Amino acid sequence: MTADEGYFGERAALEFAIGTGRIALPLAERGVRVAGIDNSDAMLDRLREKPGADRITTVAVRVPNEVPDSAAVTPPEPHFAVRI
Q: Domain holding 66: CATH number?
């Protein structure tokens, strides 16, 4: 099934704490536009080394000591079908 045959259609998925891309990479492989946010440069570096990572937009976010409300984070794209 491709993304346009399924739930996502032409929309994208946003994953908070994308890490090494365990969820994002399979989605991107199926044609879903994926963006991910993480506060760990090391995790994002590991993701960027993997095959298919070039299809994922990543953003490093520096978070203060308190846990942020995900609604307060500005995503890299304005519209997402799913926020993970």
A: 3.40.50.150
How far, in Å, are 31, 40, 71 from residue 53 at the CA level?
13, 16, 25
Range of the domain at 73: 3-83
pTM: 0.68
- Structural domain total, the chain: 1
Query: For the segment 38-68, what is each residue's pLDDT rounded down to a tens digit?
Result: 989 999 999 999 999 999 999 888 766 565 5
